[in-house]
Amino acid sequence: xxxxxxxxxxxxxxxxxxxxxxxxxxxxxxxxxxxxxxxxxxxxxxxxxxxxxxxxxxxxxxxxxxxxxxxxxxxxxxxxxxxxxxxxxxxxxxxxxxxxxxxxxxxxxxxxxxxxxxxxxxxxxxxxxxxxxxxxxxxxxxxxxxxxxxxxxxxxxxxxxxxxxxxxxxxxxxxxxxxxxxxxxxxxxxxxxxxxxxxxxxxxxxxxxxxxxxxxxxxxxxxxxxxxxxxxxxxxxxxxxxxxxxxxxxxxxxxxxxxxxxxxxxxxxxxxxxxxxxxxxxxxxxxxxxxxxxxxxxxxxxxxxxxxxxxxxxxxxxxxxxxxxxxxxxxxxxxxxxxxxxxxxxxxxxxxxxxxxxxxxxxxxxxxxxx
Length: 371
What we know:
Elements: H1 17-24, H2 34-63, H3 70-93, H4 105-137, H5 148-167, H6 191-226, H7 230-268, H8 276-289, H9 293-301, H10 303-313, H11 334-340, E1 349-350, E2 353-354
């Protein structure tokens, strides 16, 4: 599928990337314009922030056992998808503008496929988080009883689907044999593929918003029945705190990615008057900005996560054994909430085995993964 590949009738395998750009009306400048410098500078700055911040989130989840629950594994995988997005976008920054002309068709498809894979992984992670929250909230739990093995099977499945979606255009859904159907924004992609990809993601967004709306309605109705019980109120506040954090993550994701997907959809539908090329680069930068929003949400919403960030940044070699300073917004484990509603002498059991013995009142419950 490169210039060494012989052409077939109606196909243009033996043509350069520049040929498809000229045919689609997306001309590549031979020199660097001020606009190119601005976009690349903004993009690379965002990339470095994204990579650093999401590495910090992943390290915090691995380091702190209070985050060893299915919901945090899924949020950690979302951070991994954002990290991959940062690396993919950084790769794009080194292969854009006048550099695009030097790309082979294979390199061009790799560049676009990395971006597609990262977005698909993020969307599927958010969908998995929505399903997990639906399952646990409707059972009035904070954490799913899903086994660790099942969580990792879901994570592997997410990445397999994401990789396949990134490879789909390379495997044949392109316009090398259908030149009139080439996209303007992505000149080697078929317009029909852009429509499919944009509609699929927008539909997934809509489903997730509907799921979270249903959960909020249910929690509000259920909270009225629990208002007279102190321990249940604490549990409700914990559930709401976690729900607010996850919903903020979803909300920012939709806000950052929807403009870009809408422009892709308009391009796929062949909207000539929409001038999609004027907004393409800026919407892509906006979409990439979403990848460092999540670590900011974690920091502001959860004191325990913020403290773990500080420990990592300060290169602390030892863990604080008593884990003081619990989350002010209750974005933590159900064990802590259960402990606050019990006395110091209460013993929690799992399959008949004591997990907490009598001890000082300021020591929180152990953060075991109760699968």
